[in-house]
């Protein structure tokens, strides 16, 4: 089984910072091939840094190496969509993965379930990997509705997909209460039910089911040991190259 470990840089990193990170990552992986054995690393920089990171990764971005992702993409291939970027455009810049439905997109940019469905299909249509994020707010968790909430998000976005198209999808469970600067780490017990539900519905049918939310070098090992967790989608800990390499070490071990 492939273990996925990746990070989104969100709205951070200058071109120089992105280049330094990617160059250092490529060099480290060339020296330590065990960090990619049975692993699939991925990084998702801001749009402005896609080509910079692609070029800096070089051979590390090839088969078996680091997968490059985009943080969003529009569902139309072209047109009068000021400020938007299409799937063909991010693919042309080197992206092979598109993040879809992050809670920040849903909350601040009106990313509805219908729009996530359109984006998943556009990503698949162009041969890229959709990384679909699902997750519930604290009040839903407190009311015991986590499983129903995240399954509704996943089913809505993946409606009608079967076989090979569905098999190209990545799912990331990112509870809203666990992500961001003020999130708190989820316990292994808290992850048991939602991860089991996602695996029961999609296990063996999608590429992998990941967990994201306050992942650190301290809790990465235990989180990877939770049944149903096929990998980690990491924020701040992986914005530092040393932190990301340490997470790869933990996952590889």
From TrEMBL:
<comment type="pathway">
    <text>Carbohydrate biosynthesis; gluconeogenesis.</text>
</comment>
<keyword id="KW-0963">Cytoplasm</keyword>
<dbReference type="GO" id="GO:0016853">
    <property type="term" value="F:isomerase activity"/>
</dbReference>
<dbReference type="InterPro" id="IPR000652">
    <property type="entry name" value="Triosephosphate_isomerase"/>
</dbReference>
<dbReference type="InterPro" id="IPR035990">
    <property type="entry name" value="TIM_sf"/>
</dbReference>
<keyword id="KW-0312">Gluconeogenesis</keyword>
<dbReference type="Pfam" id="PF00121">
    <property type="entry name" value="TIM"/>
</dbReference>
<keyword id="KW-0413">Isomerase</keyword>
<keyword id="KW-0324">Glycolysis</keyword>
<protein>
    <recommendedName>
        <fullName>Triosephosphate isomerase</fullName>
        <ecNumber>5.3.1.1</ecNumber>
    </recommendedName>
</protein>
<comment type="similarity">
    <text>Belongs to the triosephosphate isomerase family.</text>
</comment>
<dbReference type="InterPro" id="IPR013785">
    <property type="entry name" value="Aldolase_TIM"/>
</dbReference>
<comment type="pathway">
    <text>Carbohydrate degradation; glycolysis; D-glyceraldehyde 3-phosphate from glycerone phosphate: step 1/1.</text>
</comment>
<comment type="subunit">
    <text>Homodimer.</text>
</comment>
């Amino acid at each position: 089984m492939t273990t996925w470990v990746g990070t989104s840089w969100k709205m951070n990193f200058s071109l120089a910072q992105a280049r330094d990170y990617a160059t250092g990552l490529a060099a480290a992986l060339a020296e330590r091939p065990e960090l990619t054995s049975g692993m699939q690393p991925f990084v998702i920089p801001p749009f402005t840094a896609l080509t910079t990171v692609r070029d800096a990764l070089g051979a590390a971005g090839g088969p078996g190496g680091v997968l490059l992702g985009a943080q969003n993409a529009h569902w139309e291939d072209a047109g009068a969509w000021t400020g938007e970027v299409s799937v063909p455009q991010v693919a042309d810049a080197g992206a092979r993965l598109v993040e879809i439905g992050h809670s920040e997109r849903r909350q601040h940019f009106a990313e509805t379930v219908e729009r996530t469905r359109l984006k998943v299909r556009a990503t698949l249509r162009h041969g890229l990997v959709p990384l679909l994020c699902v997750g519930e707010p604290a009040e839903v968790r407190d009311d015991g509705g986590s499983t129903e909430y995240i399954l509704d998000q996943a089913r809505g976005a993946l409606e009608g997909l079967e076989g090979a198209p569905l098999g190209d999808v990545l799912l990331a469970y990112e509870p809203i209460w666990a992500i961001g600067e003020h999130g708190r780490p989820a316990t292994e017990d808290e992850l048991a039910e939602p991860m089991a539900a996602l695996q029961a519905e999609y296990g063996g049918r999608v590429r992998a089911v990941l967990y994201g939310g306050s992942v650190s070098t301290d809790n990465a090992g235990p989180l990877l040991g939770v049944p149903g967790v096929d990998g980690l989608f990491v924020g701040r800990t992986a914005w530092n190259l040393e932190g990301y390499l340490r997470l790869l070490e933990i996952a590889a071990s």
